[in-house]
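Write out this protein's structure.
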Amino acid sequence: MTVLTILKKPSAFLPVAMSLAALALVAAQLVRYGSAPQADEGATAHLWQLLMAAQLPILLVFAMKWLPQAPKQALSVLALQAGVGIAALAPVFLLHW
């Protein structure tokens, strides 16, 4: 089984897509309002939080299913998921939002 085969499974690509969507929300917020902190958390912040939190159960299901079956490929996918997740988290922490 290859990494690409596993990446076609919803439990593999959904966390990546959700992190990319969260990153796009942060980028749109930066373009629209700049990097100054807002007085109130808006809908964008709540959507970001939901997207990031909703990934965790999906990641758990992925790890429980694929790590025993194809450990090397599953670890590669988990590394990709972690990298994209960190990319979505980084602007929030770096800008102290």
